[in-house]
Amino acid sequence: MTSAAGTGLRPVIVQKYGGSSLATAEHIHKVAARIQARKDDGVDVIVVVSAMGDSTDDLIALSDAVTNGQTPDAREMDTLLSTGELVSSTLMAMALKARGYDSISLSGIQAGIKTDMVHGSARIADINTDRLRRELDKGRIVIVAGFQGLAESGDITTLGRGGSDTTAVALAVAAEAERCEIYTDVDGIYTTDPRLTDKARKLSEIGFQEMLEMAVLGAKMNPRSIELGAVYDMPVYVASSFSNEPGTLIHGGEHTMEVRKAVTGIAVDRNVGKITVRGVIDRPGVAAGLLQPLADAGVSVDVIVQNASSDGTTDFTFTVAQASVDKAAEVIESDSTVEYAEVVTGSDLAKVSIVGTGMENAPGYAARMFSTLSEVGVNIDMITTSEIRITTIIDRDQVQKAVQALHDAFELEKSE
Question: What pLDDT sits at residue 363?
Answer without folding.
Answer: 76
